Amino acid sequence: MREYNFFVYIMTNKNNNVFYIGMCNDLVRRILEHKKKANDGFTKKYNLNKLVYFEYYNDVEAAIGREKQLKKWSRLKKTTLISSNNPSFKDLFDEVYNNRWFLQS
Q: Which residue, 10, 28, 33, 104, is most buried by CB atoms nearer than 10 A?
C-alpha cells in the first residue's frame, strides 16, 4: 500500500502580522510557489513568504480537517501554536528543503 504525504502549514510575512494556512501534498514545491509569488492570491498580495509552522499527515481527510480547524482559530491561538515550536518565527523553509528526504514516501 502506497503511503501519501500531506502537510498543513502556516506562512507569514516579515512582520509576522498576517497568517495564511494551507494544505498540500508537496511542501517544498508549494512553499517555493509562495516564495516566487507564482500564483495570484492572498500570499502574493500580503507578501507572505515565511514558512513558520507545518504538520505532517498521511491521511488527506485528517489534513483537511486540521486545516479547517486552524483556520477557525483566533490569532492568539495560532500565534501560541507557532511559538510553541518556533518561538522566533524563523523561516523553516531551508530546514525543510535541506531535510526533504523525510518528506518523501
A: 10
